[in-house]
Structures are given as structure tokens and as C-alpha cells.
Amino acid sequence: MDVALNKSILGIVGKKNWGKTKVYPGHEYTSSNVKFVRKIYPQVGENKALDKLEQFCSKHEVTAGHFTLKDEVDFNPFMRLEDPAVQKAVGDTSNSWDRAEIMDKLRAMKNRM
């Protein structure tokens, strides 16, 4: 999953195009993702992109096509594996886990919701 999200997609699109590339997921899951991501960034203001997404979701049932790849990079913990808040949330307090282990723990956390 890490390679698909963080290497293939981001690399193919290219960083200069992240803000121009709209995200159209195959299903509407954004509101439930906000609840999950809020467990990682519990304080409003801790992740401005998440705050923006949360406000949007509170007013709109459909979110597909309203956010860009850059937005995803800014709020999606599966695309923020090197973020200390993400590492702490999965239990990597020593910043020593590899990306696959962090990804696996995130997926397990999400699956338990």
C-alpha cells in the first residue's frame, strides 16, 4: 500500500501537479476517515488540512472531486508515514520502525474502527 500511494501515485503525478490533481475515490468514505484521522491529530489546529476537511464534511455529504492529491498528502496519515504524530499513534515512539510496519499498524487501527 505504501508503494502504491506514496511512490507510484505521487511519483507518476509529480509534486508540481499534486495541487492540480483531483481525487475521485471509488466510494464515499471521507467522513469516516475524518473520525479515524482525528484520533491521530486530536486537537483542532494540529493539522490544518484535516480541520478544513472536517468542516467540509460537516456541510457536504459528497466529497469526491473536491480535494486534491496535495490535500490528501496533507491530511491522510497513510501518506504521512514520517510524521511524528503518525508514528506516535501507531506506537513507534523511538522513530525506528520501517514504513511497512507503520502502514500495517495504521491499517489495523483503521480496521478496528
Number of strands: 0
The best one-word shape is globular
- CATH topology annotation: Metallo-beta-lactamase, Chain A
Spans of 5+ residues with little confidence (pLDDT < 50)? Answer: none
Please describe what this structure looks like:
This protein is mostly helical. The protein has one domain: Metallo-beta-lactamase, Chain A, CATH 3.60.15. 55% of the residues lie in helices and 0% in strands.
In short:
The chain is mostly helical. The chain has 6 helices and no strands.
What descriptors fit this protein?
Metallo-beta-lactamase, Chain A; single chain; 113 residues; globular; 55% helix; 0% strand; hydroxyacylglutathione hydrolase activity; mainly alpha
